[in-house]
Design goal:
Layout: H1 15-26, H2 31-35, E1 41-44, E2 60-72, E3 93-100, E4 103-109, H3 113-119, E5 125-130, E6 132-135, E7 138-142, E8 145-147, E9 160-163, H4 168-172, H5 177-191, H6 201-206, H7 212-220, H8 225-257, H9 268-274, H10 283-297, E10 303-308, H11 314-327, E11 331-335, H12 339-353, E12 360-363, H13 369-381, E13 386-389, E14 403-409, H14 416-423, H15 429-440, H16 456-462, E15 475-480, H17 486-492, E16 497-501, E17 512-517, H18 521-533, E18 537-541, H19 549-566, E19 574-577, H20 583-594, E20 600-603, E21 616-621, H21 629-636, E22 647-652, H22 658-669, H23 673-683, H24 689-695, H25 710-726, H26 736-742
Parallel strand pairs: 4-7, 10-15, 10-16, 11-13, 11-14, 12-13, 14-15, 17-22, 18-20, 18-21, 19-20, 21-22
Antiparallel strand pairs: 1-9, 2-3, 2-5, 3-4, 5-8, 6-7
Helix pairs in contact: 7-8, 8-25, 9-11, 10-11, 21-23
Bound molecules: adenosine-5'-diphosphate and magnesium ion (MG).
Length: 756
């Protein structure tokens, strides 16, 4: 066995206990795995700033002694710490005053408070690394990295030292930053001589990439900046390249293996709606409709992601696609994640369908037994053309006559499992084989589940293609209003085709966005009153602030009570919606607001998903500094749907840092969801473990940042395309290394669904 494949516990300095920690915290099982944990930042240990020197914006390192530490609660009240038990739940911030020979400064922590409190004992010296910011005329650092200073004359003292991802548990288990450096050094000594290159020579030389062993050595212990750059580029490229290669390969298999339901007719249903549209489609809508039609008639199964900002008119596109399915003798289903949203869709779609005569029904959790029976029968005999529904559509007893198109709205709320259930509801291949032959000539078949990574596709191919009992996947269109930056979409959905509606219907007024500090909240209430007097409705949204749901609920309820005080019955009606209510209560309250019976809807972020209340013209977001920009943008999209001028009021903690406020200001400058999403991604550093988790990436890119490495991603994708073009099945001898690498589990990516 190779050293890199040995269990991590056998590396000197590890042992079974630490091995268990490394496994649970960082997913490291072997010595080779350890080498693939890279520093996310390098500290130039040769430069320590004096506190008095700090001025600019750049990251700096200071070596300072803790003078005092203070815990603050709400409204900057001091939380007592001597003698009694500290009430951690009430703590909002830890402030640590530190000093060196030149002066003092403050270190501020809003997160990891307890852990930092315990180690920031007065008198202890730390090396703090962070970005200084100015606050009240003085410099402080928010969430600095704090490490014990290295011993004088330590070898690592000079040059660039890697800082590795870490967790509280790791540190408590003795795997500190310093220990990690030692482990990496030991691992390199063992593994470098035997390291296996993962990229063929021709790819290395054509793309000016350094060899893997050079890259691994220099990513952990850079000889200098130049070597670090070369190492970083190589490792990023490798990561992005294999990801693209695996995704593109899947796409290739799908488009060549999956027979699609052929839909080449544009007929009466489509035309009757198209000719009676109450508005002209935007250029973007037209383009996307064309892209979808190309797919649907291609003879291959469509798997398309449709992205479009809130209000960009995705529903209309979905309905036109559904009518195309109808015109070709199929049915369509449109699935939405919540009951309220489904009902709204249904109402809108019925309006659109009026001139077509196509029968549309709705199926949700609250459909009665009688309604269900009728709907099931109508779907089975084909008399229902379009069905709009929630998860209820996935139940086994929902059987279609000929399902040709499945549209999934707000796709991130659904998992892949659920999608695949829909796929299994397609028509039997025997039923349509003759039609396919008639329209397309005899196309070799496969199995719809092939693109789910299952074996059955191959089996079906070996059997010689379609067989009568096999179900054919309907075309699939997933729609999301979460603007995913192109780079991210390419990675997450590399095996899907992506369409973008990048234009809003004309005449939409951009939502006016205002920032208000929370100590001026009265002005917000005054503004709300004026708007309500004009007959408008208002959303008030609270974020999830605390880790515990209970605390969040308290927070929401406090806010609710305050609002009730300012907006008393019977003059005002306030509804409240949150995650801990039963579905009935939630729906009831949502409906009260949607139907105009409540003036104000107080909620957590449950309203984020597409509720349409055209009369709501104000969105107030509390503690907005806690939200990601993309999420703020989503929330803001809930208003501005009617004709009235609409407003989004971002209330922020008045003590919020300058950076956080600047971040929010972007919301005032632009209404472009993609710009905001790109910006949001840039602000989350590549090694920011927490950020990566929040973005919910199914894959840990570790080294590459999708926001910053867009150019390299494009390069990697182009190389992957070129490789597959020349050798689609990767059978060429010179691609042996690629096949070997792709066999590893990490490229077996199945879950594209968690993107919100
Ligand atoms: P999305 O689902 O993308 O958020 P919708 O499909 O709900 O957007 O459309 C929002 C509103 O815009 C709907 O009331 C719809 O009727 C209207 N709409 C859609 N397309 C157009 C268009 N081309 N011109 C004018 N209004 C449109
Ligand atoms: Mg929508």
């Amino acid at each position: 066995m190779k050293n890199s494949e040995s269990d991590i516990q056998y590396l000197s300095g590890v042992g079974p206990k630490r091995a268990a920690l490394l496994k649970s915290e960082l997913g490291i099982a072997t010595i080779g795995d350890l080498l693939r944990i890279y520093p996310f930042r390098y500290i130039d240990r040769s430069r320590i700033y004096r506190i008095a020197e700090i001025g600019g914006d750049a990251f700096v390192q200071v070596k300072a002694r803790v003078v005092s530490r203070t815990l603050y609660g709400p409204q900057s009240s001091i939380v007592p710490t001597d003698g009694q038990k500290i009430l951690w739940n009430a703590v909002k911030r830890l402030s640590v005053i530190v000093e060196d020979s030149s002066g003092q400064m403050e270190m501020v922590f809003f997160k990891g408070i307890r852990w930092n409190w315990e180690r920031m004992v007065p008198g202890t010296v730390f090396v703090f690394f962070g970005k200084p910011s100015e606050f009240n005329g003085r410099f402080n650092m928010v969430h600095p990295e704090a490490d014990a200073p290295l011993p004088e004359g330590s070898v690592l003292q000079n040059g660039l030292t890697g800082v590795y991802p870490s967790t509280e548990k790791l540190k408590n288990g003795g795997i500190t930053g310093k220990a990690m450096c030692k482990l990496q050094s030991a691992a390199l000594a063992l593994c470098l001589p035997e390291i296996q290159e993962t990229l063929p020579d021709y790819i290395l030389s054509e793309n000016a990439l350094c060899p893997l062993n050079y890259a691994l050595r220099n990513i952990h212990f850079p000889a200098d900046q130049y070597a670090l750059q070369k190492a970083t580029r190589r490792l990023k490229f490798e990561k992005l390249f294999f990801l693209q290669l695996s995704l593109l390969k899947q796409k290739y298999i799908r488009s060549h293996g999956n027979p699609g339901l052929p839909m080449s007719k544009v007929g009466a249903a489509f035309n009757s709606l198209y000719n009676s549209l109450p508005f002209e489609l935007t250029g973007a809508q037209k383009r996307v409709v064309r892209e979808i039609f190309e797919d649907m008639k291609s003879g291959h199964q469509m798997n398309r992601l449709l992205q479009g900002d809130v209000g960009s008119g995705k529903t209309m596109v979905a309905v036109l696609a559904a009518l195309l399915a109808i015109d070709n003798g199929y049915q369509a289903c449109i699935m939405a994640p919540t009951e309220v949203l489904t009902q709204q869709h249904y109402a809108n779609i019925c309006k659109y369908l009026a001139p077509t005569g196509v029968k549309c029904s709705i199926l949700t959790g609250s459909s009665t037994a009688k309604e269900r029976r009728e709907i099931h029968a109508g779907l089975e005999d084909g008399s229902i053309g379009i069905i709009v529904g929630t998860h209820a559509l996935l139940e086994d007893n929902v059987v279609f006559h000929r399902l040709g198109l499945a549209v999934i709205d707000e796709q991130h709320r659904f998992g892949v499992d659920q999608r695949s259930k829909l796929w299994a509801k397609g028509p039997l291949s025997g039923d349509i084989a003759s039609e396919r032959r008639a329209t397309l000539g005899n196309v070799r078949g496969g199995d719809p589940s092939a693109s789910l990574g299952g074996m059955s596709g191959e089996v079906a191919n070996q059997l010689g293609g379609e067989y009568p009992g096999q179900r054919l996947a309907p075309h699939v269109l997933v729609m999301t209003a979460t603007p995913i930056p192109r780079t991210l979409a390419m990675t997450l959905y590399g095996d899907l085709d992506v369409s973008v509606i990048d234009e809003l219907p004309p005449g939409r007024k951009p939502v006016k966005t205002i920032l208000v500090p929370d100590n001026k909240k009265n002005t917000v209430y005054g503004f709300m009153k004026k708007q309500i007097a004009l007959g408008r409705q208002v959303f008030v949204v609270y974020p999830l602030i605390f880790e515990s749901e209970k605390m969040d609920l308290n927070n929401l309820e406090l806010g609710y009570e305050e609002i009730l005080k300012y907006f008393p019955m019977p003059d005002y009606k306030v509804a409240i919606v949150h995650g801990q209510q039963t579905n009935e209560v939630k729906n009831f309250n949502m409906k009260a607001f949607a139907e105009g019976r409540a003036n104000i809807l107080v909620s957590t972020t449950v309203i984020e998903v597409g509720v349409d209340v055209p009369n709501a013209s104000v969105m107030v977001i509390e503690s907005s500094q806690r939200f990601g920009l993309s999420q703020l943008h989503q929330l803001r999209g809930r208003v501005g749907r009617g004709a009235d001028e609409s407003f989004c009021v971002l209330v922020y903690d008045f003590k919020t840092s300058k950076e956080a406020r600047e971040r929010l200001e972007l919301m005032c400058r632009t209404n472009d969801g993609f710009e905001i999403a790109e910006e949001d991604m840039k602000m989350r550093g590549p090694g920011d473990l927490e950020g990566t988790q929040q973005s919910g990436l199914p894959i840990n890119l570790a080294i590459a940042s999708l926001a910053r490495d867009g150019v390299l991603l494009n390069e990697a994708r182009a190389v992957a395309e070129k490789v597959l073009e020349a050798d689609p099945r990767l059978e060429d001898r010179r691609n042996i290394l690629l096949v070997k690498e792709l066999r590893k589990d990490k490229y077996d990516i199945k879950d594209y669904s968690k993107i919100s």
